[in-house]
Design a protein that fits this description.
- The complex is a heterodimer.
- By secondary structure, chain A is of the alpha/beta class.
- Chain A contains eleven helices and ten strands.
- Chain A folds into two domains: 3-80 and 157-271, Rossmann fold; 91-156, no CATH class.
- Chain A is 40% helix and 22% strand.
- In chain A, strands 6-7-8-3-9-10 form a six-stranded mixed beta sheet, with helices on both faces. Chain A has a four-stranded antiparallel beta sheet with strand order 2-1-4-5, covered by helices on one side.
- In chain A, a hairpin with a 2-residue loop joins strand 1 and strand 2 (15-25).
- In chain A, helix 4 crosses helix 5.
- The longest helix of chain A is centred in the middle third of the chain and has 18 residues, at 171-188.
- The termini of chain A are far apart.
- Chain B has one domain (52-254).
- Chain B has helices spanning 2-36, 39-49, 54-78, 85-123, 126-132, 137-175, 180-190, 193-219, 225-254.
- Classes of the chains: A alpha/beta, B mainly alpha.
- Chain A binds chain B through residues 49, 51, 71, 75-76, 78-79, 81, 83, 85-87, 89-92, 102-103, 106-107, 151, and chain B through 120-121, 124-126, 128-136, 140.
Chain lengths: 272, 255
């Protein structure tokens, strides 16, 4: 077990994000975390990586409680982890080569020729060896995501975490990223956690899937099991239906009353 | 009642902010030792904060010196002691105008650049990405920029003073016909090492204060476009007020 999220409760102010969440990521497998927007998928990644602490429950990374670790121990765990951010999060004052070389320079004493070889190998794997001297501002969204992936794997992590890796990608870039995630997992044996709501892409790469909704895991299993599920929530999410257990509309007053200004008149009346 | 409550709220907010800056200052100082082991990063920041502010510093130094020359000449000639213009200009620049005006310009030029740079790194997840790569942004980003600012300020003040003296000499000697020998020799005779030390200490204190405010505001920026704008504004306002407050305290201490 690489990641073990046990009975996690998490709230931001009075808004409860998780109410007893359980998620497990096993060694050498691709685990997909799915769910509608606003269900706390990215928050879950922040909990797993120790960027924030749960209100109650525990998050274990390689058996260690990340919320109670000292910075030095947390950083030791993070060196075994790579993370691909939704927007790439490339360092804007460094070019592509230096971005990928950044963790190598920070954590190793490798010589310059070795760093060059390592970085070019990773950039070649994501098809961007030719863009090594470009600045992040010159890259398209898909290219930035691929550079960020090269940076995430440059130190050969044991766990790779992808936050919405398919958002805003054209079909070619998306296909490349899907293939890369699968290859990283199969060839290098990297444990992967992919957070996304792209059901079809996840079905192609995931070994285990979790569907989050309203603070809980409402379904889990292989993508096939989820597709066979008769659960209303699962069906609504996989079939993309607006009406169902997951409300499409944020809580609001009656539409007709609001348009006619009834609610405002009532408010004025109460104030008077 | 409500105004008393809001006054309490303002006071509590201000105290909380001062406390937060003090805690941040200690955290930055703790990271300065490991950061000093990587001089290349610091040299780069001295260049960013110092060399890139040179033109504005020199330009303003020249004009401040020229104004000092004009006003000083106008005042001193009333007492028939225009030969003392060199002393007046040198002491005014070394002890007061050099450090203060440079600090105000530093806050507006380098301070805002530091805040917006770090703030944008916060807004675009670059700082979080560094933490995820097990790199402490306090050590890699904040400490080198802070040290760079502290080193750059005295250098900028020295250049401001030199150009300012040139400006005062330009007006006094070249335009108002003050005797060049008297201008320079009286300055040499009257300016003591203590006066230079006072200016130097002020420049280091102002450099520390302005750099600290700039990196603090940048590091704690709300990660939005409006948040970065607000943090940049706060940097200029807080640094300027703090500079003038510290200037009064230091001047009183040196007298």
């Amino acid at each position: 077990m690489v990641v073990d999220v046990k009975g996690v409760h998490y709230a931001v102010g009075r808004r409860e994000i998780f109410a007893g969440l359980d998620v497990v990521a096993r060694r050498g497998r691709v685990t997909a975390i799915m769910g509608p927007s606003g269900t706390g998928k990215t928050t879950l990644l922040r909990l797993i990586t120790g960027q924030t602490a749960p209100t109650s429950g525990e998050v274990l990374l390689w058996g260690q409680r990340v919320a109670t670790l000292r910075q030095r121990d947390l950083y030791a765990l993070r060196r075994r982890t790579g993370m691909l951010f939704q927007n790439g999060a490339l360092l804007t004052d460094l070019d592509v080569f230096e971005n990928v070389a950044f963790p190598v320079r920070e954590h190793t004493d490798l010589t310059e020729p070795l760093i060059r070889e390592l970085v070019l190998t990773k950039l070649h794997a994501v098809g961007l060896r030719g863009a090594a001297r470009m600045m992040p501002s010159e890259l398209s969204g898909g290219m930035a995501r691929r550079v960020a992936l090269a940076r995430a794997v440059v130190l050969d992590p044991e766990l790779l975490i992808y936050d919405e890796p398919f958002v805003g990608l054209d079909p070619i870039s998306m296909g490349v990223i899907v293939r890369l995630i699968r290859q990283m997992n199969r060839v290098l044996g990297i444990t992967s956690i992919v957070v996304s709501h792209d059901v079809h892409e996840l079905a192609a790469i995931a070994d285990d899937s979790y569907l989050l909704s309203q603070g809980r895991c409402v379904a889990s299993g292989s993508p096939e099991e989820l597709h066979r599920s008769e659960s209303e929530v699962v069906r609504q999410f996989l079939d993309g239906v607006a009406d169902g257990p997951v409300p499409f509309h944020f809580p609001a007053p009656d539409y007709r009353d609001q348009l006619l200004g009834v609610d405002r008149r009532a408010q004025r009346g109460r104030a008077a | 009642m409500s105004s008393a409550a809001s006054r309490d709220g303002l006071l509590t907010g201000a105290l909380r902010r001062v406390g937060a800056v003090a805690v941040f200052f200690v955290a930055v100082l703790a990271q300065c030792v490991p950061a000093l082991a990587r001089p290349r990063l610091i040299v780069h920041q001295v260049y960013n904060a110092g060399a890139r502010s040179l033109i504005i510093i020199m330009l303003c130094g020249l004009f401040v010196g020229m104004v000092l020359g004009l006003q000083g000449f106008d005042l001193l000639q009333r007492f028939g002691s225009e030969d003392a213009l060199g002393v007046a200009a040198a002491l005014g620049l070394l002890k007061e105008l050099g450090p203060v005006v440079t600090a105000l310009l530093f806050a507006g030029r380098a301070g805002t650049a530091l805040t917006s740079e770090i703030g944008l790194m916060r807004a675009t997840d670059q700082l979080t990405a560094m933490q995820m790569m097990a790199v402490d942004p306090m050590q890699r980003i904040v400490a080198p920029r802070f040290i760079g600012g502290v080193i750059a300020m005295p250098l900028l003040v020295a250049i401001f003073n030199l150009v300012g003296l040139f400006g005062a000499q330009l007006v006094g000697v070249q335009m108002m016909d003050v005797d060049a020998g008297a201008f320079w020799s009286q300055m040499q005779g009257a300016v003591q090492l203590n006066d230079v030390q006072e200016g130097f200490i002020k420049s280091v204190v102002f450099g520390t204060a302005c750099s600290l405010i700039a990196v603090h505001e940048g590091y704690h920026t709300e990660p939005t476009a409006a948040g970065v704008g607000l943090a940049t504004t706060r940097t200029v306002v807080t640094s300027s007020v703090l500079t003038l407050l510290l200037d009064y305290i230091l001047t009183a201490a040196f007298l």
